[in-house]
């Protein structure tokens, strides 16, 4: 019996990040959401499972509080009929949720992970996926992050943070892939 199709895990594609940008935070990978839209279309066309992850803030000033506009998912990445939404309160989509139980119950071994931000919730979810024994694939052009101030006060560019995160995950926790590679792989499985 062939392996089941991979599952797409879409992490935190929420409006809070648009608000951060509007407030002047600089990000990398401006086409990431368009690539996520491409992945959603390909997974839907192949009948492969999709899990949407949404971050629910817990601190009073969080832009991800359910009562705030930033909690809402971006329209282009919204779930469709029957696609589950996993709500998390920490960085990993596996902690305090039933994501792992759902994946195991469906015998899903391969996870294709995309979303925001590369070095926070995407990285933490990807690391845990690898540690839990899933075949994790992180889609490099379908995730993004923002400039950060380091402990030394130095500004680190989003592009550098993104690249370092991918380097840290590559090989040990996940295979780093592109949207085109994932879509080609899905098409090959369907044939």
Structure description:
- This protein is of the alpha/beta class and 191 residues long.
- It has a single domain, classed as Isochorismatase-like (Rossmann fold).
- The strands form 2 sheets. It has a 6-stranded parallel beta sheet, with helices on both faces. Strands 6-7 form a two-stranded antiparallel ribbon.
- The model has no long low-confidence stretch (mean pLDDT 96).
- The chain is globular and about 50 Å long.
- 35% of the residues lie in helices and 20% in strands.
- The protein is built from 6 helices and 8 strands, in the order βααββαβαβββαβα.
- A hairpin with a 5-residue loop joins strand 6 and strand 7.
- It holds the Pfam family Isochorismatase.
- Keywords: Hydrolase.
- Residues 7-180 form the Isochorismatase-like domain.
- This is Isochorismatase.
- InterPro entries: Isochorismatase-like_dom (IPR000868), Isochorismatase-like_hydrls (IPR050272), Isochorismatase-like_sf (IPR036380).
In short:
This protein is of the alpha/beta class. 35% of the residues lie in helices and 20% in strands.
């Amino acid at each position: 019996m062939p392996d089941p199709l991979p599952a797409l895990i879409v992490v935190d594609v929420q409006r809070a990040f648009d608000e951060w940008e509007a407030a002047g935070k600089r990000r990398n990978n401006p086409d990431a959401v368009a690539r996520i839209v491409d992945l959603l279309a390909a997974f839907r066309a192949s009948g492969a499972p999709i899990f949407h992850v949404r971050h629910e803030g817990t601190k009073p000033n969080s832009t991800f509080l359910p009562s705030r506009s930033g909690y809402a998912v971006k329209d282009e990445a919204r779930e469709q009929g029957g696609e589950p939404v996993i709500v998390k309160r920490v960085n990993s989509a596996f902690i305090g949720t039933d994501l792992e139980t759902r994946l195991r119950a469906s015998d899903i071994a391969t996870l294709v992970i995309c979303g925001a931000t590369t070095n926070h919730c995407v990285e933490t979810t990807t690391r845990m996926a690898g540690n839990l024994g899933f075949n994790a694939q992180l889609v490099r052009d379908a995730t993004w992050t923002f400039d950060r101030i380091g402990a030394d006060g130095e500004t680190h560019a989003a592009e550098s943070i993104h690249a370092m995160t991918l380097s840290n995950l590559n090989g040990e926790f996940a295979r780093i892939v592109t949207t085109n590679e994932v879509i080609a792989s899905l098409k090959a499985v369907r044939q």
